[in-house]
Design brief:
By secondary structure, the protein is of the alpha+beta class. It has two domains: about 100 residues; about 130 residues, Heat Shock Protein 90, CATH 3.30.565.10. It has a five-stranded mixed sheet with strand order 1-2-3-5-4. Helix 1 packs antiparallel against helix 2, helix 1 packs across helix 5 and helix 5 runs antiparallel to helix 6.
């Protein structure tokens, strides 16, 4: 579930003036990633995402900051006007924070000097901080994980984001287990939750699962999904190195 506040009326805008709420925004492509993307294509796509994220942050947020300054200078003559002023400032602050989160999510290509374990651990800590569910994270084969190329790091990180997005949206889980393991020949990512589960049909997968399948196909890997209603979900990704 995209944790974006959608007010029914202006009276429901949250007060974010003095506090910063945990919010996570995951980009879901309107069109699924092309099946069979090469490693070069993966890097090109991520560089473009980074550029778009930077443009969004650097071009839009300054205008919002200026708008906030102008609104703060307005003199109010009634309680109704004071309320409208406060809500307008809150809306702008929320928009600025949303853009920052989107930009950060899109800009993974800028963090390729870090290990995949560090990137995943940082992301999972952010999710854990929102108190949506408990998360257990384990790794096996740290040496091999640290040696993964940028294409593998990007692919596995995006898959983790996509699946956690699905988990937040649909699972109603209280626990998520993430295991990242690697040998000299393969790297494996498993993500398991204890949520409501679903009747999986690979011919009728949603965009989220299709994106995962297409990313894995680009590196000639394998996707295994095990789920039944009321039995949670286990996603296992295996990629040859």
């Amino acid at each position: 579930m995209e944790r974006v506040f959608q007010p029914q009326s202006i009276g429901f805008l949250p007060d974010v003036t003095n506090r910063r709420e945990h919010q996570f925004y995951f980009h879901e492509d309107a069109v699924s990633d092309r099946q069979g993307n090469s490693g070069r294509d993966i890097l090109i796509q991520e560089n473009e995402r980074t550029r778009l994220g930077q443009e969004l942050h650097d071009s839009v947020n300054p205008f919002l900051a200026v708008a906030k300054l102008y609104i703060e200078q307005l003199q109010t003559q009634s309680d109704q006007e004071s309320f409208a002023k406060k809500q307008s400032i809150n809306a702008i602050l929320l928009a600025i924070e949303t853009i920052r989160n989107i930009s950060s999510t899109m800009a993974i290509a800028q963090k390729m000097d870090r290990s995949l374990y560090d990137l995943m651990d940082e992301f999972l800590m952010q999710i854990q901080g929102a108190d949506l569910f408990d998360i257990e994270f384990a790794i096996k084969g740290k040496k091999e994980i640290c040696a993964l190329s940028d294409e593998y790091k990007i692919t596995l990180y995006r898959i983790l984001q996509e699946q956690l997005n699905n988990t937040i949206k649909y699972s109603k889980a209280s626990l998520v287990k993430v295991i990242l393991s690697a040998t000299k020949t393969h790297v494996c990512l498993s993500i398991e939750d204890n949520g409501v589960g679903f009747a999986y049909n690979d011919k009728k997968s949603g965009i989220g699962l299709k994106n995962i399948e297409n990313r894995v196909a680009g590196l000639k890997g394998n996707v295994q999904i095990k789920s039944q209603p009321k039995e949670g979900c286990l996603l296992t990704i295996t990629l040859p190195i």
